[in-house]
Each structure stands twice: as structure tokens, then as C-alpha cells.
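Hmm, how's this folded?
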Amino acid sequence: MFHVTERLLLRPAWPEDWKGVLEAIADEGIVRNLARAPWPYDEAAARFFVELPQDERLPHFLVVESGSGRIIGSAGLGEHDGQPEVGYWFARDAWGRGYAAEAARGVVEVAKLLGHRRLVAGHFVDNPASGRVLRKAGFVPTGCIGKRHSLARGEQVASIEYVLDLDEADMLPPMAA
């Protein structure tokens, strides 16, 4: 499955993408904010990531910058406590450019096309920038703080939980630049 946004191409990973993934994510400041990525992040981890099977109900994508064709991150659907969950990561040089919110909104569009009615997401409490991304993508905080395991940190980390009711997502304001 592929999805195009204004500035991004969301596409499946191919085995030869491992070098681009490794170049984009091999930064402890990125990996420590993810639940399932190891640190240090190495060639084996990148190869494993690009070879993950796709679930047609929960697709995950590499995010490619349209102008350069460069892999700048990943965004997609996974599962958390039996519910479809939006997740993402971006290369440090892609931060602050609105790419994460744009990609997250693209994933929300795909989720709606797939018939999902409600999505969840979360971010570690020490990563407030991810909360801003989620709010720009239409998610609202649930008021709950849970615990999620961070493989890179090797411990449980407090996580602020969010939800998006897709029946109401049509009323989202246009994304600000």
C-alpha cells in the first residue's frame, strides 16, 4: 500500500532500504523515544525493520521526502492493547518541518480507508514534541498516563495516552504549516 501527502510518499519498506533506515534512525535521541527499537541501533536492526511483514489492516510505511526521494522516517499502524495505534519516528534533520504531523495525518487517512473507527497513540512524558504532533494530527489526550516498555532504555517509561475517533476526524481543521 502507498499513500501520498502534500510533501511525502508513504510506502512499504524494501530490503534494500536498510541503509536509508539506519542512516535516518541511528541516533539515541530518536530511538529512546520508541517502544520497540533497540539501542544501539545497528545494521541487523535496520535489516530486521525493513523485512517486517505487512499486516493489511495495520500497514506501516517508510516516509520518503518527495523532493529528495530520501527516507526521512517511518509512520504507520500497529496494535496496542487490541486497538489500532499510530506510531512514527523521524530523522533528526526532519524535525521541526511539520513532516511528522503530515505523515501522521496520512496514516489517519489510510486508517479511515481501511474501516478503522478509533485510533490510539501515545508518547513518553519526556518527549512533549510528539504530543504536539499527535494534537496536530487530531488526537486528544485521554487524561491517562500509562507505562510502556522502551527497549532502548531497558525500562518502563510513563506514556501519555491519546485517542482519535475517526467518525469525528472529518471535522479536523486544516493542518497549519
Observations:
- Helices lie at 18-25, 28-31, 43-50, 99-113, 128-136.
- The beta strands are 3-4, 8-11, 60-65, 71-80, 83-90, 118-124, 140-150, 155-165.
- DSSP finds five helices and eight strands in the chain.
